[in-house]
Amino acid sequence: MIEPDPLIVSKARVLKAMAHPSRLLMMEALAEGEKCVCELQALVGSDLSTVSKHLSLMKTAGLLANRREGLFVYYRLRVPSILRFFDCVNAVLADQNKYSTIQPNDSLHCETSPLMLSLSPRRKRVQVNHGK
Hints:
Blueprint: H1 6-18, H2 21-30, E1 35-36, H3 37-44, H4 48-60, E2 64-69, E3 72-77, H5 85-96
Antiparallel strand pairs: 1-3, 2-3
C-alpha cells in the first residue's frame, strides 16, 4: 500500500475534527466570538466531559485556541476563515435539494481560501434558500 501524503492525512484530521453535529454547532457559535465552555455546554446540551472532549479534539486539530481566566476557559476559532468551508458544503447540499435553483448542467462554486480547492470551475454562484 502506498503511504498517503502527510498533507492529505493532516487535512483528513481537520475534517474528522469537524465531523460531528455538536462540534459544527460549537464552531458556528464561535464565529460570533470567544465563548466560555459553560456557554458551549448549554448550547449543545451535553455533559461537561463530552463537551470538553469535543473541544480538546478540535483544539488538537488546530481548529480552536483557548485561554484561561480564573476558573473559566474560553475558546475561539484559531482560523475563522475555516467557516467559509461551509459555503462549499452548502453548495453540495443545494445540489442535492430538489428545490435548488441550480440546473443539472450548472457547475457548483464556493468561495474558498487559497489553501482550499474549489468544487469546480466558476460558472454560476449558488444561492441557497433555507425556506425563510
